[in-house]
Amino acid sequence: MKKILFYTDTPLLGGAENQMYLLAKYLPADRFSVTVACSSYQSLNPWCQKFMELGIPVQRLQVFHKHDPRHFLYLKKILPHFDLMHMHVWNPASCRYGFLAAGKTPVVITEHDPFRLKGYKRWIKEKLMKKVKTVIVASDAAKKLVVEENLVMESQVTVVRNGIDTEEFALESKQDARAEFRRLHFGNDAYGKIILCVAELHERKGQKYLIEAMKSVLGEFPDMRLVFVGDGPSRAHYEKLASYLGERVIFLGRRKDVAQLMTASDIFVLPSIREAFGLVLLEAAIAGLPVVATNVGGIPEIIENGKSGILVEPKDSEDLALAIKLLLKNPQDTQTLCKNLRIKVDMEFDARLMAQRTADVYDKVLK
């Protein structure tokens, strides 16, 4: 049995960390033994607890931040006990000490959100990537970007689609009292349609354009509500931007009941300007929501325009409004879009398939 160390220096939980958990959960247990190494931030405690409940050891590194050199010292000490280190790079400049500490231990990295680095950050990454055996990315678009950066050869980049625990998410999204849930979480008069957006409140996620689109949507469908789930650096700005719409726009912050919120909603919108994959779209599919998303990054590898959802151009509030109104006016067609998207998710984006393909990468590196 091969011993695999998962390492990340992330301070926060998001899609990349969820993929780490699902990968550890579904890797073939008769072939691989996983240990997780991460920082001691309190924000990671619930996530670490989930690994431990699976019987997966977690080593908490006593560091102050991602630039703390003790990352290197801790990793240097424990890496000789492992056959391979799988680093989960949550942004292209993260996990630097992992590269430096690797020594003779083979390194596989997953670039969860690749984008172009500049200046000294790119120079450092170029040097560090010489230690990497294989780069895993979640989409063909992400592979193209990594290859264009000339940091590794194309033969070193492997596409492994992100996965979702379809059975578990389906169970979580079941809801017997939908009307009561909507009243409690969306307001007493939330009898109209609910547009939901689950994403970090950040400029790159494009929520600005969805807020702008609501003026046109409310002109034809005045009972609509727009609900944002998530938090981030742009929250205060977006709340101010949406203030003229009053109670028709709701900011719920971070939530643990995303599956239930999706089931209680009517349309899901992801207006990203940049998106490596779009994992939340898989969740929307399981919850049975029709999807409007932007034609960027890995999103069109999930959503086929007109067949399993509607794609619009980024930074285009008018296009967003037209797509939303199209779904509202054509409920029968909307049902077909939902059905087609669910079929695609079941066939291509199950977490078990993601874990098996990653296991194949490990086998190739370790042979």
Care to give the gist of this entry?
By secondary structure, the protein is of the alpha/beta class. It has helices spanning 15-26, 45-53, 70-78, 96-101, 119-128, 140-148, 166-172, 178-186, 207-220, 235-241, 258-263, 279-286, 317-329, 331-348, 351-366, and strands at residues 2-7, 32-39, 58-61, 84-89, 107-111, 132-137, 157-159, 194-198, 225-229, 249-253, 267-270, 291-294, 310-312.
Strand ordering within the main sheet: 3-2-1-4-5-6-7
Poorly predicted runs of 5 or more residues: none
Overall average pLDDT? 94
The class by helix and strand makeup works out as alpha/beta
Order of helical and strand elements: EHEHEHEHEHEHEHHEHEHEHEHEEHHH
Helix residue percentage:
40-55%
Could you walk me through the main structural features you see in this protein, from its secondary elements to its overall organization?
There is one protein chain. The chain has 367 residues and is α/β, with parallel strands linked by helices. It has 15 helices and 13 strands. It has helices spanning 15-26, 45-53, 70-78, 96-101, 119-128, 140-148, 166-172, 178-186, 207-220, 235-241, 258-263, 279-286, 317-329, 331-348, 351-366, and strands spanning 2-7, 32-39, 58-61, 84-89, 107-111, 132-137, 157-159, 194-198, 225-229, 249-253, 267-270, 291-294, 310-312. Strand 9, helix 10 (235-241) and strand 10 form a beta-alpha-beta unit. Helix 1 packs across helix 15 (351-366) and helix 9 (207-220) packs across helix 13 (317-329). It is globular.
